[in-house]
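Worked example 3 (structure in, sequence out).
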């Protein structure tokens, strides 16, 4: 059975006005005995322990640290051979400084390490790095994720990345890099229309290219000088719709119309939509307008009509800005890590119901009450900041959920229903 970390010194995160180096230098040294360390080394490597002779390749060390951090933490000891012989390191201070640099610059999010210099009577010294994965998931600078299994580390494949991230419930799924995407997979018309809305004649100046603009200006991609690895947010916002469908097949919306007042009524039409956010927003609204009237002002009372001996109920009317805002919220605030629960927009005779994946654990009931007053917990801040701008072309109303509740009740006389259950957030707007 693998051994857990053997030290439990707790350090809080550094204050914003103090540098990382100052914080490290002012912390008390962790209490690790030499006997305890030798006992750990004799047991050999396992899921929580990695042994190194020296620090010679910072890239490999970064991968090892990421693997430990993503596997609930662990320890890396420098100065021990593969045969478990304590050889020591010649320059422990330099090793410590390099480890601090790697944790700060080569790993995202930056990691706060616990480092010991252990000296023995024979003059040999070991450097011990203790890693705590408090802000998982961690990745290397080139966008790769690693886990430690037994004495080995392995890269997390794209196929299992979503499942793994779903388990640890990240709040930054939008920042996950997608390595199979290149510049040709982006909708240049959408991207440069957005750019030109802020800076006149961007294309005419010929100073931007797609990769540079996404990476340096919008922070929607990572990579070195010759690398371009866009994030999930970048692809969902500006990727070509067919590429979004290929890379993120679970990022889809089901739209349906039922001839009744609930989902047990006869199904009239059902479609599955997938593509970038701009396409989804416009397509969902067009589907709703096919069966509903979206109005700015409260309508006069509608009369029933007859066809033969059958009474035909008039189309329901809804407040235009409330429906637009509700659809926008669905797209901006979806829990992207949940794969098994689709987003649904369901149209009934008397209401429009919107169901979105959202973790019940940690969200309800306090947060579900606070959100009614505009106090939100944004899962995707980058996506929301760009998607909600008029320059993106969505023309989203302002006011959030409080506006939807207030305006819809005035419009129809019925209160909006909001409830959370089974990792779903549900919003039901009644029409006239």
């Amino acid at each position: 059975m693998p051994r857990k970390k053997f030290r439990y010194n707790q350090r809080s995160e550094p204050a914003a006005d103090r540098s990382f180096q100052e914080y490290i230098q002012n912390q008390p040294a962790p209490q690790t005995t030499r006997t305890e360390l030798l006992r750990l080394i004799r047991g050999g490597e396992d899921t929580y322990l990695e042994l190194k002779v020296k620090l010679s390749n910072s890239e490999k060390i970064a991968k090892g640290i990421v693997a430990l951090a993503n596997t609930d933490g662990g320890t890396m000891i420098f100065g021990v051979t593969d045969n478990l012989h304590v050889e020591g390191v010649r320059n422990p201070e330099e090793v410590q400084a390099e480890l601090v640099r790697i944790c700060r610059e080569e790993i995202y999010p930056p990691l706060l390490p616990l480092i010991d210099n252990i000296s023995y009577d024979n003059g040999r010294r070991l450097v011990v790095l203790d890693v705590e994965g408090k802000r998982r998931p961690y990745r290397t600078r080139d966008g790769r994720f690693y886990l430690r299994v037994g004495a080995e580390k392995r890269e997390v494949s794209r196929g299992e990345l979503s499942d793994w991230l779903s388990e640890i419930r990240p709040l930054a799924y939008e920042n996950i890099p997608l390595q199979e995407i290149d510049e040709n997979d982006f909708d240049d018309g959408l991207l440069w229309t957005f750019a030109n809305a802020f800076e006149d004649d961007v294309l005419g100046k010929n100073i931007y290219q797609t990769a540079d603009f996404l990476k340096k200006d919008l922070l929607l991609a990572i990579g070195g000088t010759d690398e371009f690895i866009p994030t999930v947010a970048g692809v969902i916002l500006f990727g070509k719709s067919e590429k979004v469908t290929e890379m993120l097949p679970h990022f889809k919306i089901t739209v349906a119309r039922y001839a009744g007042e609930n989902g047990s009524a006869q199904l009239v039409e059902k479609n599955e939509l997938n593509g970038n956010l701009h396409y989804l927003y416009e397509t969902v609204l067009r589907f709703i307008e096919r069966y509903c009237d979206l109005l700015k002002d409260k309508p006069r009372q509608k009369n029933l009509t007859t066809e033969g001996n059958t009474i035909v109920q008039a189309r329901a009317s809804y407040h235009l800005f409330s429906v637009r805002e509700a659809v926008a919220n669905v797209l901006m605030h979806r829990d992207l890590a949940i794969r098994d629960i689709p987003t649904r927009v369901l149209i009934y005779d008397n209401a429009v119901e919107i169901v979105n994946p959202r973790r019940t654990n940690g969200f309800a009931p306090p947060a579900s009450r606070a959100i009614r007053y505009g106090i939100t917990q944004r899962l995707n801040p980058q996506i929301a900041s760009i998607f909600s701008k008029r320059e993106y072309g969505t023309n989203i109303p302002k006011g959030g959920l409080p506006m939807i509740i207030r305006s819809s009740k005035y419009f129809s006389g019925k209160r909006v229903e909001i409830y959370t259950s089974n990792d779903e957030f549900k919003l039901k707007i009644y029409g006239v």
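Notes: Residues 1-18 have pLDDT under 50 and may be disordered. The CA atoms of residues 278 and 394 lie 7 Å apart.
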